[in-house]
Write a structure and sequence with these properties.
The structure is a homodimer. With about 350 residues, chain A is α/β, with parallel strands linked by helices. Chain A has three domains: about 60 residues, 434 Repressor (Amino-terminal Domain), CATH 1.10.260; about 140 residues, 3-Layer(aba) Sandwich (Rossmann fold), CATH 3.40.50; about 130 residues, Response regulator (Rossmann fold, 3-Layer(aba) Sandwich). In chain A, about 45% of the residues lie in helices and about 15% in strands. Chain A has a six-stranded parallel sheet with strand order 2-1-3-4-5-11, with helices on one face. Chain A has a six-stranded mixed sheet with strand order 7-6-8-9-10-12, sandwiched between helices. In chain A, α10 links the parallel β6 and β7. In chain A, α9 runs parallel beside α10. The longest helix of chain A has 16 residues. Chain A is elongated and about 85 Å long. In chain A, about 50% of the residues are buried. β2 of chain A pairs antiparallel with β2 of chain B. Chains A, B: InterPro entries: Cro/C1-type_HTH, HTH_LacI, LacI/GalR-like_sensor, Lambda_DNA-bd_dom_sf, Peripla_BP_I. Chains A, B: This is LacI family DNA-binding transcriptional regulator. Chains A, B: GO terms for molecular function: DNA binding. Chains A, B: It comes from Streptomyces siamensis.
């Protein structure tokens, strides 16, 4: 990189093109209102002198854009329908704002658009990326790796042996397996014996870990007591209907998240089952907008979603500043795993 | 991050090919004006050195980032709490995806962060900006103007005589005043005589226009029948309580949006007023997630929020591509104003 002394100035471009500084500035910044022959003259002078406009030049030198991308590997409609993402973004936003770094949320219609997200990340627009809600077969981790920007993941990434170059991924997660175990043990403690699990989307590690936690306690549960959901209320409704057909005698349900539990509660009410008398229900997340509004209010496993967002942002800013992200004591591969806590309300 | 040191530079290619930097740049970016034997020499040098054009540098020349910023002049918490924004973003996202342009949502904690948004827009990261929910004293229009990127506004901007340089702002809006008139006329037609209005945030043109529409019909309404809200359910509750104290005999309410109406309905129920028998209520927006869920379901003024988002994106992409945004027939200052329609449900 050449020093600033030798870098051609805006004035030099103006002189070369025979126009005013204001005209150069307007052309360079993509503004309107400059006639084409004039604009062309300015562009030629820019190229001939190798002039780099100020802001971009600054970021080429400092290599800082004071901006961080957030990528949620879900279509835009789900990002706005699931309060989990709003909570996590709230934590991220607070932390980035405190460091005067711009939060840049990259929205997509679906997985087909992830290549474009990779191009934006590689394009020199952000200092780093926070990525969450990854799915196992998602091309994003490879694309992000190719983009070469510092990244912190929300939730343990699902690749088997680490990312392509075996650099440990830095991530923030909660103790999904331990939290699930505590929920199911609580149901056992209530004397329930026919305890079912409605899973999350099983192409996500959080869903797999919660299922593992369920099995840790209910090793003998028959396969008909595990029904696949997808972390949405509609998925919870579908799964609960299937469960009631398979096992009409079910007396407890551990749902993979609060939205799933809310769907299950609706179907139980439809079928005249009393909660918790006939069927006890526990969720996961403790999103107050959901867990306090259900009928009855939901017993659930609390994770500090906003706090996880803050921590992700903090770890990323530290990596950007050239420090290293501190790996948590619980995990050797650069992950920080936060504890969970059972919150008892009326549903179990 | 891979080191820049090992990556071949534009200069190295120029040296290898024995041409100027400008010539390499022109060939690499697919530009014309380089004679074929020279261009071929450059291409060979590119291949031999394994030169990969720097994306940021290339976009300085091509002047395209294939990305559009969306700026909502509200704190991140409101963006996620009000389904209006999700609907508008859905329309924008669909349109941008169809043009393979990345939607970049710039989130903030509040107005203090708008200078940073201006810096990002000026930093050469996007081809243009869609800006909505502006407030009268917001510094954003000036910052955006300074950034010099093509912009389309959602909702008529509130500045009196156009932006600083008198270039007409391009915007998409609905007929707020006409829609309000239709709502209030409907209440008059039902025989209501003590018709009140709960306004939106009066530092936004949409709220002012709806208030004007109310006054067009109710020129004689006393000032105690107009209470200020802020487009939120909490604001609607506060305003409805105040209204019931001022005018316990109120027999109809036109609320500035559906969320405000939802808050007002809750307070009316609390006070034992039957809707619509005692008090008829009309909202504005027709957001199904709100208007169909209230008790009773809400009569409201429909605007095509998602369609407005699509149209904003379309107009912006046309400006970016060098065409001009077509001004609507209804407005000479570059605005496109879409019609509204009254949707009758049980509340009025």
């Amino acid at each position: 990189m050449t020093g600033t002394a030798s870098r051609p100035t805006l004035e030099a471009v103006a002189e070369r093109a025979g126009v005013s500084r204001a005209t150069v500035s307007r052309v360079v910044n993509g503004g309107d209102g400059v006639r084409e022959p004039l604009a062309e003259r300015v562009r030629r002078a820019v190229e001939e002198l190798g002039y780099v406009p100020n802001q971009a030049a600054r970021s080429l030198v400092t290599r800082r854009h004071d901006a961080v991308a957030v990528v949620i590997a879900e279509p835009e409609t789900r990002v706005f329908a699931d309060p989990f993402f709003a909570l996590q973004l709230r934590g991220i936003s607070k932390e980035l704002t405190a460091h005067d770094s711009q939060l840049v949320l990259l929205l997509t219609e679906g997985r087909d658009d992830h290549a474009r997200v990779g191009r934006y990340l590689a394009g020199g627009h952000v200092d780093g990326a926070l990525v969450f809600s990854l799915h196992l077969d998602d091309p994003l981790p490879g694309l992000i790796h190719g983009a070469g920007v510092p990244t912190v993941f929300g939730g343990r990434p699902g690749w088997g042996d680490g990312p392509p170059d075996a650099v440990p991924a830095v991530y923030v997660d909660c103790d999904n397996r331990g939290g699930a175990r505590e929920a199911v043990r609580h149901l056992v403690g209530l004397g329930r014996t026919r305890i079912a699990h409605i899973t999350g989307a099983l192409d996500q590690t959080s869903a797999v870990d919660r299922l593992d936690g369920f099995r840790d306690v209910m090793a003998d549960a028959g396969p008909e007591l595990v029904v696949e959901g997808d972390f949405t209320p509609a998925g919870g409704e579908r799964a609960m209907r299937e469960l009631l057909e398979r096992r009409p005698d079910v007396d407890a349900v551990f749902a993979a998240n609060d939205l799933t539990a809310a769907g299950a509660l609706r179907v139980l009410r439809e079928h005249g089952r009393r909660v918790p008398e006939d069927v006890a229900v526990i969720g996961f997340d403790d999103m107050l907008a959901v867990a306090e509004q259900t009928d009855p209010p939901l017993t659930t496993v609390r994770q500090d979603i906003e706090g996880m967002g803050r921590l992700m942002a903090r770890l990323l800013l530290r990596r950007i500043d050239g420090g290293v992200a501190e790996p948590g004591p619980e995990d050797s591969s650069g992950g920080v795993v936060l504890p969970t806590a059972l919150v008892r309300r009326a549903s179990a």
